[in-house]
Every structure is written in C-alpha cells, then in structure tokens.
Amino acid sequence: MIVLRAVDAGFSRDDLIVEAFSFTLRAGESARVVQPNARAASIAARICAAIVKPSTGTVFVGEYETRLQPPEAKRRVGFVDAAGFEGDEHGFRCEVAFRADVWNLDRNGAQERARHVLAALGDDAYARALALALVADVACVVLDQPPAGILERVRRFVPLAGIVHTQAVLVPALPEPAVLSPAVT
Amino acid sequence: MNELRATIAIVRRHLDRRFAWDFVAHVALVGGIAFLFGRLLTAWWTPLAVVSALCAALAGERSLARSLRRLTFFAMPLYGRQLARAHAIAPSLMALSVPLGYAGGAALRHAPLSPGMVLSTVLAALVATLVSLSSVFRDGARAALYITLAAALAITVTVAPFEFEPTVARAAAFATLLAAIAGYFALRAFGETLARYDPVA
Predict the structure, then answer these.
(1) Tell me: the pLDDT tens digits for B73-112?
(2) Residue B200 is nearest to which of A43, A74, A79, comparing CB atoms?
(3) Cα A41 to Cα A35: distance, rounded to the nearest angstrom
(4) What is the pLDDT of residues A64-88, one digit of tens each?
(5) A80 touching B (Cβ < 8 Å)
(6) What pTM was estimated for this model as a whole?
(7) Is B194 on the interface with A (CB under 8 A)?
(8) Chain B touched by A101 (CB under 8 Å)
C-alpha cells in the first residue's frame, strides 16, 4: 500500500529553494530526502506533511493530494519538527489533550499512548515531539532532520508506517586560506 | 472529525491567563483615555473612530501574529475556513474590551454613550477586528494597509447609517446588517488567507 508519493515536489520563494524530489513510499518503508541546507530540509519535511504546499510538482498522502485536500492528508501524517517539543511536563500533557481534541481522539487513550512512546524512545525534546505526532494512528511519519539513531527506535514503535526523514547536506568547511608571507609577491 | 470539539480546543488555547490580564488592561487603558480626553473629542462619531482604530491595531499586533503563525496550527487536519472561525473567536472577545472601556470611561466622565452608540462601537470593534485579522499573515506595507482598511471600513459601516437614517433604531438596525455582511466577508477572506499561507519561516 502506497502511503506517500512525491512527484517532482519542490518549493521556491525569494532566497529559499527546496530542490525537487520524487519518491514512492509504501507501508513499512523508509525514505530520506536530502536538501542543500537545514532550512530547505525543514520545508521539504513540511511539504511531505501537507503543511506547506509545493510550488512545483505534487505530493499525495495515500490517495489525497496535499494541495487539494490538506486536512485528509494531515490526518494520516505525523509530523515531527526539528526543534522538537520544548515545553515542560505540564505543557506536554496539555499539548497531548489539545491534539486529542483536534484529532477527535479519546483523551485518556492519547495520554496513555504518549506515555508509552516516551517510555520507549526516551524523554527529550525530540522524543516528546515524536510522541505528540504518534498520538493519532498515522500511516506515515515525517521526521524533520532527526538525531542520529532515532530512526531504528521509531521503526520498532511503528513497524507498519512509512517513515520519511529529511537531512541537510553538510558542506565541508573550506580550508583555511594560506597566509602569504610579506616576502611573497 | 468533530469540528466543534476542535474549535473549542483552539479557543481554549487562546483564552489563557495572559488573555484575561490583557482584557483587563485594555478596559482600564481605553477607559482612562475616554475619561481624560473624551471632552476633547466632541464630534458624535469620535467614539466609533477611536474604537475602530484601536481594534484594528489590536488585531494586527505582532504578538497575535506570532501566536497564530505557530506551526502546530498548520499541522492540524482542518480547512482554512474552519481554522479561521476558531482563530477569530478569541480576538473578537478581546475586541469587546475596547468599547467596554470607552463606555466605562465616558460614564465616569458623566457623559455616557447612548445605547445606539454602545451598539455601534461594539459593531465597529468586531468589524475592525475581523478585517484586521488577515493582516496577521502579511508583513510590512501590506499588513499596514489591511489594518488601515479595517479601521476605515469599520468607521464607514457604523457611521454611514447614522448619517442617512432618520431614527436611531433604524440606523442601529442598518449598521448591524452592514456589519454582519462585512464581518462575513472578512471571515471568508481570513479563511482564504489561512488556506494559502505557507509557514516557511
């Protein structure tokens, strides 16, 4: 079953350019979207999660095109922002309750599921954001520049979901310019 | 999807302790202005102009923009029009603090506003707020233009009926009708703005 399909999806505005990417993701598979910098990688993740509309190409989540039916697409995707969730324990519980209300889920069930995710993945900012994304039963998880090693743990937790993760290419630092001796002309 | 449950959740998120303090502060501030400077504003339409301008500026303020531009709201499975309705409730409630403060200040000055004028200031506050909300997702000159348009439209919608209708009751009814039409289209425009907005910042 195809959970996410991107066809030449790209974005450009002012100085922000997301290079076009294409892939087909089936249930249980993973895909990586590589972009030249962190900002482009973030926008690419948002494009996959139906939060940002691609300016070129199309993205389908299941059978729903993200530009035409964003709510149906968003309901099937769990999006994890690179910044993670930076609130405290109380803020996290409030956010879980908020998500349960907006996604029309059982509040106690949502809290229980979030606790279960945190117990499996740890209790840092990224794990909390991941727990929030997985409060609803999603077909696809979009991870914006996840920390190393988290993919395997997420896969163990959602074995049947498609996982998309973005990555920024690290441009190697230029070598230090050679210091010219005053004698050299 | 239960839209009402989602709407209530979003409204509750906006109605926090800071909202309550801001509401009280606005009532006190506008009340103080009306009490101290009300005698300088002699034209009959000045309460409408003051309320419209303050509400348009209030709805277009940057802290509200930062709040509404949070990524969380755009990850929610809601259409732009649904999100617009939910987002408009809290600012509309906050807007009521301005006519409330003005009416209070005028009453303290022993020059209370007439019931028709109180109704008109409330309508002006709501129209200015709903139109100005679209400025939240714009920056620079376009945001300023929306805020100016909001204030001008609110003044026009509430002042014109009193200029052309012979009785206060008919003028108030006409103003209510115009405000309802303006508010409806403003809310639709806000929904369109939300649907088109791409959170790339």
Answers:
(1) 999 999 999 999 999 999 999 999 999 999 999 999 999 9
(2) A43
(3) 5
(4) 999 999 999 999 999 999 999 988 9
(5) no
(6) 0.88
(7) no
(8) yes
Instruction: Tell me what percent of the residues of chain A surpass a pLDDT of 90.
Output: 72
Nearest chain B residue to A97 by CA distance is B9
Using a 10 angstrom Cβ sphere, with 0-12 exposed, 13-18 middle and 19 or more buried, the burial of residue B114 is exposed
**ipTM of this complex:** 0.84
3-state secondary structure of B6: helix
Q: Which of A46, A81, A103 sits opposite B77 (nearest CB)?
A: A103
Beta A30-35 vs A162-168: how paired, if at all? Answer: parallel
Closest by CA to A162, choosing from A14, A48, A15, A37, is: A48
Q: Facing residues of A165 across strands?
A: A32, A143
A102·B9 Cβ contact <8 A: yes
Judged by CB atoms closer than 8 Å, whether chains meet at A51 and B8 is answered as no
**Res A100: pLDDT:** 95
- B110, with CB counted inside 10 A (0-12, 13-18, 19+), is exposed
CB contact under 8 A, A75 and B77: yes
**DSSP codes of every residue in A68-91:** T-HHHHHHTEEEE-TT-----HHH
DSSP state of B152: H
d(CA A143, CA A126): 10
How would you list the strands of the sheet with A56-61, edge to edge? A16-26, A2-13, A56-61, A64-65
* Strand ordering across the sheet containing A140-143: A30-35, A162-168, A140-143, A77-80
